[in-house]
Amino acid sequence: MTSTDRGHMKSYTTLQQYCAVLISSFFLAVSGASAQAVDQSTPDALIKTVVSDVMASVKSDPEIQKGNIPRIVDLVEKKIVPYTDMRRTTEMAMGPNWKKATPEQQAQLVSEFKNLLIRTYSGALSQLRDQTIQFKPLRAAPDDKEVVVKTVVIGRGDPVPLDYRLEKTANGWRVYDMNIMGVWLVEAYRNQFANQISQNGVEGLVKFLQDRNKQLAAAKPAN
After folding, report:
1. Does any domain span residue 145?
2. For 50-97, what is each residue's pLDDT tens digit?
3. Which of 22, 64, 98, 207 could form a disulfide with 94 if both were Cys (CB 3.0 to 4.6 A apart)?
4. Domain ranges, residue 172
5. Where in this chain does the entry annotate a coiled-coil region (predicted)?
6. How many beta carbons lie within 10 A of that of residue 190, not counting itself?
């Protein structure tokens, strides 16, 4: 792992107690599921209603706070899945290497990257206590197809900037990247993915993600 990779990982470790629920919310799932009504009239309205709903659910559910993975996945499938584009997230993290992967490998990468994010951040959900979200005014033109919605996580420590990158699709606005204290989620994984592919090819990256997910799944959740 390069010094840049270590710096990125350190940033994510520091932020877990503040915004793991938000990372988990928007990047844990791939395909459709039903969800309750969410305001999709504007990208910032989408973020506000989804984030507020998810945080309320986490704070009211002791099992989620304990890191109960099935309960977390159920929450995500019901409230978050329709508003994410995990395929684009994975494609961006892969960069030019995405085109080197077969359709089967691409599907595997999307699935394994999803699982990696679940396992990486779900354990930190128990740290969510008194955090609140401040939503910044949206700076975008009415006809923009790509926007950034800016928020700030307010907790016991310093405020944490947390921004969402969304695209307007035929099915509405979708989240595909997040910026945490100046580091975009996609960028945080790009170098690591590229290093794995340069050493072992696309199939090597698939295996790396699979092995890492097995390790995380076997680890006991922190109390």
Report:
1. yes
2. 888 877 887 788 887 777 777 877 777 777 767 889 899 999 999 999
3. 98
4. 43-218
5. none
6. 19
Distance separating alpha carbons of residues 128 and 122, to the nearest angstrom: 11
- Give a yes or no: residue 144 inside a domain: yes
Distance CA 11, CA 182 (A): 10
Is there a domain that residue 38 lies in?
no
Residue 218 half-sphere exposure toward CB, CA atoms < 13 A = 6
Residue 164 forms beta bridges with which residues?
Answer: 149, 178
Q: Which pLDDT value is given to residue 129?
A: 58
**Six token digits for residue 120:** 């990486």
Distance of CA 132 to the CA centre of its chain: 18
CATH of the domain at 155: 3.10.450.710
3-state secondary structure of 1: coil
Q: Kindly report which listed range (28-32, 81-85, 143-147) carries the lowest average pLDDT score.
A: 28-32
> Sheet containing 132-135: which strands, arranged edge to edge?
132-135, 146-154, 160-169, 172-180, 183-184
Q: Can you tell me the distance from the alpha carbon of 191 to that of 183, in angstroms, rounded to the nearest whole number?
A: 13
Q: Is residue 80 part of a domain?
A: yes
The pTM score is: 0.78
- Residue 9's nearest CA partner among 191, 159, 131 is 191
Q: Phi/psi of residue 134, each to 5°?
A: -105, 125
